[in-house]
Amino acid sequence: MKKNFIDVHSADMVFSTKKGRFHALHDVHLTVAKGEFVTLIGHSGCGKSTLLNLIAGLLMPTSGALLCDNREIAAPGPERAVVFQNHSLLPWLTCFENVYLAVERVFAATDSRANLKKRTQEALELVGMGHATGKRPHEISGGMKQRVGIARALAMEPKVLLLDEPFGALDALTRAHLQDELLKIVARTLSTVVMVTHDVDEAVLLSDRIVMMTNGPAATIGEILTVDLERPRERVELAEDARYVHYRKEVLDFLYTRHGEKALAA
Amino acid sequence: MVSAVFHSPLDAAAESQAAAPPPAVKAASVTTPPAQQKVAPPTPMKTPVDWGNLFLRVFAPLAGIALLVGIWGLLTMKSTTFPTPAATFTEAIKVFSDPFYSKGPNDQGIGWNILFSLQRVAIGFGMAAAVGIPLGFMIGRFDVLNRMVSPLISLLRPVSPLAWLPIGLLVFKAANPAAIWTIFICSIWPMIINTAVGVQRVPEDYMNVAKVLNLSEWKIVSRILFPAVLPYMLTGVRLSVGTAWLVIVAAEMLTGGVGIGFWVWDEWNNLNVTHILIAIFVIGIVGLLLEWMLVSIAKRFSYDNT
């Protein structure tokens, strides 16, 4: 297994806004191995989404370097698929067309049209949305939209799956259901995943490593927690597992005991 | 249960204590009918007529029109120069009974006049759309172009339509192209501006999707920009058609020929005020129909973005 599939090296991010310069990230070092599931957790405004957008290539670091598979990340691309927080499906396209747009972009050069359609259908079925291919985004629920967003990302067969609080806007039951689905899908596709979250349970349940970030401005990685729980993971069994409880407490301790006051004061 | 019904109006409006008992009675009477309906379901279930809504939607507009005609009738009761509503109406029937006669270039039926005006609007507006919409796209997409063209637009947009007419006459040396030119130049601005604003307001999320998928410029335009901008564009088109229809009447008054604007001016020279009033109604109704047509097109292309 490659240890530094994604390599964030000494990245700094400074935004120049109308109110002046805002130092979002300072000296971030992070490596992600191939097939690893890493979550970024921290209080709001700590720059975890900024870090994800840097890896996606949607933002360029002010200084430092980012590599993916030994190549510099210079622009966004389909090999680093992003699932956005608010699903970002195009409202004038059906679910099928939304996914097809991505499939077409990546595989049109190598696959026949029938194959492209098959890939699209398969991706939608993978997330349990095979029945709603002809529906437009406003006709389906928030959870279903998010599934289609995940299907769109998975259909591209990306090297890395980047998830920006994908379940943040969902109710607890739908969220739990989609987390389980995501676990199964990742186990099947062996994807490398970087996910932003503010949900401690979600982080512990899904991750191999939890990257805990300090509060901004000039946020950086405070601590990295390795979650040593065997897969497949069952949320109900884990709820009483001593190791699970311990990891959960570690994250809570970091977020609320050591880095909580500043967030409240801000 | 009754007390619950009783309490809420009391809490909401404590001062209207006297008015509170009737709603409670009403609520009680409303709760009983379902039982009665269950006993006798075969009776034909008529959908209840929503009188309040019907009144608002039908009677109120009619009352507005009646008020206008009423005031008009009252004011013209003793007038000898200004025609009464009744006289205008009978004349209108006469005018519309033969809309497509043609007795030489200066005396043609109202139908011809309307069609000629619409034709000028269509040509001038069509050319404005063909130039304005692509230009709006480019201005919205490329900031350099935006900064280059914005001062020009701000400078030229407020110019009165009729100020452009002499330029048209000078360049084209004929009345008809000059009128079309005036339509073109006046109706192009709303389309440019609205399209450009629409492009600039395409949600960042959609553009991020385009970036992550690494879509080609053509795909970005056809799959993301165009559908996202369409509602803005149609607003621009709607404003433009409205402007074009405003401008054509004024332009035709000056250029002559066949057209509703010329007709108004010609009838003024004949001192036929009745025909002028008819023309005013006709212009209003045609403008309304154009607007209605474009609104119904726009409705088909509005997406629920939630």
Describe this structure in words.
The complex is a heterodimer of chains A (266) and B (306). Chain A has 266 residues and is of the alpha/beta class. Chain A has nine helices and ten strands. In chain A, strands 6-7-8-3-9-10 form a six-stranded mixed β-sheet, with helices on both faces. In chain A, strand 7, helix 5 (172-189) and strand 8 form a beta-alpha-beta unit. The mean pLDDT of chain A is 88. Chain B has a domain at 110-300: Orthogonal Bundle (MetI-like fold), CATH 1.10.3720. Chain B has 13 helices and no strands. Mean pLDDT of chain B is 81; it is low at 1-41. The chains are: A alpha/beta (266), B mainly alpha (306). The interface between A and B is medium-sized, with 23 and 18 residues.
The strand line-up of the biggest sheet of chain A is: 6-7-8-3-9-10
Nearest-integer average pLDDT of chain B: 81
Distance between the termini of chain A: 42 Å
**CATH class placement of the domain at 110-300 in chain B:** Mainly Alpha
Write out the CATH superfamily name of the domain at 110-300 in chain B: MetI-like
The biggest sheet of chain B, with number of strands, parallel, antiparallel or mixed sense and barrel status, is: none
Helix fraction of chain B by DSSP (H/I, runs of at least 4): over 70%
Secondary structure: number of strands of chain B:
0
Following the backbone from N to C, one meets helices and strands of chain A in this order, namely: EEEHEEEHHHEHEHEEHHH
Q: Please give the number of β-strands of chain A.
A: 10
Give the overall shape of chain B, derived from the CA principal axes: flat
Count helical runs of chain B: 13
Q: Please report the two chains with the greatest interface, counting residues with C-beta closer than 8 angstroms to the partner's C-beta.
A: A-B, 23 and 18 residues
What is the helical fraction of chain A, as a range of percent? 25-40%
Computed CA radius of gyration of chain A, to the nearest angstrom: 19 Å
Structural class of chain B: mainly alpha
Sheet with the most strands, sense and barrel status of chain A: 6 strands, mixed
Question: What fraction strand of chain B?
Answer: under 5%
Quote the beta fraction of chain A: 15-25%
